[in-house]
Amino acid sequence: MHQKHYKQYDEVVETTRLANGMEVIVNPKPRFNSTYAMLTTNFGSIDVRLANRSVPAGIAHFMEHKLFDKQHYDSSDHYAALGASDNAFTSFTQTSYLFTATDNVLANLRVLLDLVYHPFFSPEKIAKEQGIIGQEILMYQDDPNSRIYFDTIANLYSHSPLSADIAGDIDSIAQITEADLYATYRQYYQPGNLTLTVCGPITLAEMLPVLHELPATSANPAELRRLQQQTKRDIQNSTVVPATTTTLAVTTPKAALGYRGPAPVVRGREFAKQELAFGIFLQLLFSEDSDIYQNLYQTGIINDSFGFDFEMEADYHFLILALDTDHPDRFFTTIPAVIQKALQEPQRLARQFKLIQNEELGARITQMNSVTGTANQLGTTLDGYTNLFDEIEIINQLDLPTVLQIAQTFFQASQKTTNLIK
Amino acid sequence: MQKKTARIHFNQQPGAKFKTTTVAIDFVEPLEHHNLEKRVLLAELMENYSQKYASKLQVAQRLAELYGTQFGTSVFRTGHQAVLRFLISFADERYLPHQTDVTTAVSAFLSEMIFHPLIRKGEFPQAWFQLHQQNVVDYVRNLDDDKKYYAGRQLQSLYFTETPDQGQSILGDVTRLQSLTSAEVAAYYHELLATNEVYISALGTSATPVVQQLQEQFAGLHQQVEAAPVSLQWQAPQEMHTKVEEVEQQQSLYQQAYACPVLRTDAEYYAALVLNGLWGGTASSLMFRDIRERDSLVYYINSNYNPTVGVITVQSGIDGENQPRVQSLIQAELQRLIEADYQDADLNQVKQVLISGLKSRSDSPRRLLNQQFLQQMLGYDEKADWQTQIKHVSKAEISAVAQKLQLRATFFLKGASHAPKTL
């Protein structure tokens, strides 16, 4: 067990890797009532490859639903009987199962581990779930905000695992079989691919007796890495659709501009540094304390609906800027010009750099107030478990030239798409 | 009879559990539909400008200088009161470089934003006013694209058909937002300052010094007002109001509103809270377990209890064809509550979840501040034994409240296209 003290913030982070390969990270907060625990597998909607075949799109999300449904009980009932609230979510690259509890934390932890470690799939239960997930898919299809975001990603990585809806579609989920679920589970839910993060009034030492009840062996990590490499190639070989327009009932048209940059080549703390630096670059241009943002706002190019999001993962790195506007063309032409100008005349950004650093520090101190916010920021395999407290140190060490150089690398090699819903 | 009462109220909860100090300043007045739009635009303008910080950029940069201090305004309703809130949250000095005195700077900033809005010659600068007016109008219009929000708004306005003031969105009406002038909003600022009750609540390490500094700054306002103390009142519609609307989308939404004559300050409050948790307010509820999990009839279904108004609403996302079945199942679950036709274990489970949810409130500065504000405004003390109160709620007490529920509004947003579509 490893303990790292962050004296300035009066915080400790405890980590260990179990014999079966599962990583465990704990930030004890003795003065809080709630404990938040999240068990994550590095398995998301893009992972549809098995050794000799593919499985239907949406299987990760489908499995997330089905893991709760055991042969003779539902894990949610066990949580509820112990007073916990539980949830789960699936993204492109991960599936996470979580609970929040104020009492019976170790008993709830057992429910979480049982939920993830002991699958039960049957044809009857699969058929029933297809109805519920079908409804969920339709709900997202009706939501213009969800559509503008995911359709823009689909443009950036067309005909790749990233272009499919996270939940799949009605046809793909109808094809999922018991055999698919078991085979996929064995491949991607092996303990070496799992990370448990916990934040609340509990220590790692208190959790260890429960963790030691887990099986001590994992599956085949080499095969897992080979499949992940194949998925990466599937994504990298995809092409960009330069522009799309869709019709949907919206009050004001929704416009999105997407950039696809090169997939990151670094890992560990360097990955975290590049991710933070790219985020700061975008803040320099598009946060409210940027004069560039204010000019765009006052000239009506952007408005209060404007927002941006970037995702940096092992296999991809993209940026999406979006808003509701009656003048999408002005938005589509002005934003790229603004980005180019900022990269060419970086001296304009110097004054704001320190402000953004201050702001990032304050945001992280605020985040430490939340067990959820902290547990979600205890790091991932990809960033070498760089946590919230480490991030402050990285941000303080960053300088403007480094930030600009990382942004240059992204934009120079980037491809663009525009997406309009009207 | 109205009498003079204190108008400005201070409350502080010092303590070092959190790494920030959070302050809420709430301006409260009875909900008047002709003031809603002025409050919305005033909140927007006061969030972004003051005399000293005369641009959005200057405000944002000042907040960044104060180590990412978070500041914002919002409008919301509590019972029959309209609230305009200034909320600020800043990091403790002990965690900042150079031990910066953020507390004094934040108090000065708040004072500037509240007492020196950017009003010149009786109005906000026209260009800024028009820009924000348009943005607020666009924002309110676009909200309806979110069909859950839209259905909720329709339900509210149906429920309050007989008292339309209550049925208004707290964000007001688009036409009236468009017709307001800068001078009207500026004049309303002075009215707000002179007449609203003010509740100042602070939580965190710097709660005491920040309240002391704000007391000095608010000393210039009239400290008393002719008004009855705020209290909750229950009004129920006499008639049932129903509406069906078709929309071009695949899913349908079905919502209901029940009059519930139990308010936050009533003795039966805990019974109503548990009733809602058991009916549809938690993942262990009868609606969730039967209608969603057992019958797969809905993608989501839940109920919400608003104890400041006395209403329970039910929201569901469904395939339109299933609406009659869902409607009768919701009713059937209510009948089970009346007849106490459920297991003791179900009841205990829901109580556990509710207790856990309330215990976790003390981990959130904002939830604590809200609680502090409500208690002070409504003049009640949350009983120290609230856990025991929840545990002691009996099936008979739940049944008694359940029998009093009256369905008074339903809204069905019917998806016009049911054909499954492949992405």
Cα(first) to Cα(last) distance of chain A is 55 Å
Q: Gyration radius of chain B, to the nearest Å?
A: 23 Å
- Low-confidence spans of chain A: none
Q: Could you report the average pLDDT of chain B, rounded to the nearest whole number?
A: 92
Broad structural category of chain A:
alpha+beta
- Helix count, DSSP H or I runs of 4 or more residues of chain B: 16
Sheet with most strands: strand arrangement of chain B: 2-6-3-5-4
Q: Specify Rg of chain A, calculated over alpha carbons.
A: 22 Å
Percent helix among the residues of chain A?
Answer: 40-55%
Question: Helix and strand string of chain B, N-terminal first?
Answer: EEEHHEEHHHHHHEHEEEHHEEHHHHHE
Protein name (chain A): Insulinase family protein
Pfam families (chain A): Peptidase_M16, Peptidase_M16_C
Domain Peptidase M16 C-terminal (chain A): 176-350
InterPro entries (chain A): Metalloenz_LuxS/M16, MPP/UQCRC_Complex, Pept_M16_N, Peptidase_M16_C
Q: Care to describe what's here?
A:
The complex is a heterodimer of chains A (422) and B (423). Chain A is 45% helix and 18% strand. By secondary structure, chain A is of the alpha+beta class. Chain A has a seven-stranded mixed β-sheet. A five-stranded mixed β-sheet of chain A has the order 8-12-9-11-10, with helices on both faces. The longest helix of chain A has 20 residues, at 123-142. With 423 residues, chain B is of the alpha+beta class. Chain B has helices at 33-48, 56-65, 102-115, 126-143, 147-159, 164-167, 174-179, 182-195, 207-218, 269-281, 286-294, 323-339, 344-359, 365-378, 386-391, 395-404, and strands at residues 3-6, 8-13, 20-30, 70-78, 81-91, 197-203, 224-227, 241-247, 252-259, 298-306, 311-318, 406-415. Chain B has a five-stranded mixed β-sheet, with helices on both faces. Chain B has a five-stranded mixed β-sheet with strand order 8-12-9-11-10, with helices on both faces. In chain B, a hairpin with a 4-residue loop joins strand 10 and strand 11. In chain B, helix 3 (102-115) runs parallel beside helix 9 (207-218). Chain B is globular, with a radius of gyration of 23 Å. Chain B starts with a strand and ends in an 8-residue tail after the last strand. Mean pLDDT of chain B is 92; it is low at 418-423. Chains A and B meet through helix 2, helix 4, helix 11 and helix 13 of A and helix 2, strand 5, helix 4 and helix 13 of B. Chain A: Residues 176-350 form the Peptidase M16 C-terminal domain. Chain A: Pfam families: Peptidase_M16 (PF00675), Peptidase_M16_C (PF05193). Chain A: It comes from Fructilactobacillus hinvesii.
